[in-house]
Amino acid sequence: MTKELLFSTWGSWSGARQKDTEDLNPALNAFKAFMGWDGVMVSDPSVSLVDMCRAYMEKASQESCGQCYPCRLGTKEMWRILENVCAGEADLRAIERLRSLAALIKDGSKCGIGLTSTRPVLDVLDQYPQLFEQALDQGGVPRGVYVTSVSAPCSQACPSHLDIPGYVDMIRMGRFEEALGIIRRDCPMPGSIGRTCLRPCEHQCRRSIVDEPIAINALKRFVDDRMQSFVQAEAPVPEETGQHRVAVIGAGPAGLSCAYYLQLRGHRTTIFETLPEPGGRAAVGIPDYRLPRHIIRREVDIVEQLGAEIRYNLTIGRDITIDDLFEKHGFEAVFVSVGAQEPARMRCEGEEAGYQCFMTGLEFLKRVAFGENPLPGNKLLVVGGGNVAMDCVRTGLRLGFSEAHLLYRRTRQEMPADSKEFKEAEEEGVRFHYLVQPMRILAEEGRVTGLECIRMELGEPDSSGRRKPRPVQGSEFTIECDAIVPAIGQTCVVDCIFPDDGSVELSPWKSLVVDEITFQSSREQIFGGGDCITGPDILIRALAQGKQAARHITQYLEDKTCRADPDERLGRYMARLGIFDPEENPPYAGSSPRAEPPILDPKKRVKGFAEVEGCLSLPQALYEASRCLRCYRIGLAALDEP
Fold first, then answer.
1. Are 42 and 132 in a shared domain?
2. Whether residue 498 sits in one domain with residue 476
3. Exposed, middle or buried: residue 232 (CB in 10 Å: 0-12, 13-18, 19+)?
């Protein structure tokens, strides 16, 4: 039964429109009340707001970094006063002191804990002062059951919810080993992610409202690179448990992450990988100039040090069946993390003709990764607008093509490729052709000679939100070339892995259907994550899903249940509320430029596969870390009695 929202002060501090009851109810239904950085929401009259304030300030006092005098001492004093009020052992003077302390902390603190943690208490004091008086008259209030969560806009945006302000603050203080430890709690591949992530965290960095976002990803790479320079990475010590056995299908980021966290929990993990080396798409789909292979191998070494076994050149569904893993090999659970390896089609005449010098983007990058130069010639055409297309066209220049052209059917504004990749490709001499659609591959004696195209124009937005391209009649033209590489997307088809008996639910697109929190499939022993459930996506999301699945695989193995915990539900609720407000007026003045890592000169970098982007220097990293505003936000939800 849906709970009614009895009252809400949410949005009163930010000045934003208070959310409608209809909008909030579906998410709040899991809790009796919620207290957070921007107010209070209550749906159950049995909730004691005074006790919620006590529990909230207890958490705030624990999270205070101690670097601001008002917050360090004031939050503890507020907690002490509220403890006394809830026990009925205070007087009205204590309530007035509570109010003055709350205002002092809010106005005198520098980071997010101090700036926001007293707001909901002030809300309750202003709108329901009688509740505190009643608590004193009645000799106290009953204690509630609560769950808390601490996040930040950047952490909320990160699929793996890294404690970004935490590790950035450790870098600022020069405590690099502790910074790396914080990162590895939620990201076991910091070197790889620090080089390739598309940085959703930086898009919700509150510093961007003042000037520019913190270089979060560059700082992650800095601390990993620096620690590798001084100490050899060592695997953490796993827990001692019942040593359950789990099979992981695929040694990409999702599979490696799942194995890492399963091993930490004491389970025995075996990874089955089709390729002769680990890393999946990260290893053979991202060129070495962006992600050197030795970085991935170093991180895989840590997974193996934890005890995980990797078996290469084995394809599940061909060499071993899913049922074999359970019945013949004794595994108790399976995590499926095969990547998206099926290329999307251009729907272009001649695409299926088998012409020489026509190769899909994934195949092209994979063969280059294994040391081949698969496409000879001088002029390369790459079709697409994403990061794979960028990787292909930039790789072409490094293989010796004198001209590398990229054709895209929309405009630069709609191109999904990372802006950094686009800029670097432009610097290297890639030629871009917008509003162009391939129609027919031209060939002579079975070899590509050109591509017939048609001009496009943009119409109304489609389901992706981008304006839909449509052909301009009579605008056909031909581009001569020596090789064509389509890179317009990939799909993941997993039906070949599973028995054709309906025991595992697949989507109409042949991807694996799993619970969005537990990642358990319709067959309880099978879990999934990564591209096989989402389609092609960023590496950090695959890694995050592997981590989350490991948590629920452990739950399934140890007590045969698989359900979302209260803290997971609270995290999803806070994500729905949204922590980042791009229209707020932050209480900060002045600006400081963002530190940028060194970049290899374009004329030098196109001559080989040397890494293009360097690492921040020590002075740069210390400076950049000091730009963080430490925007933590606390959420507290009242639960039904256990």
1. yes
2. no
3. exposed
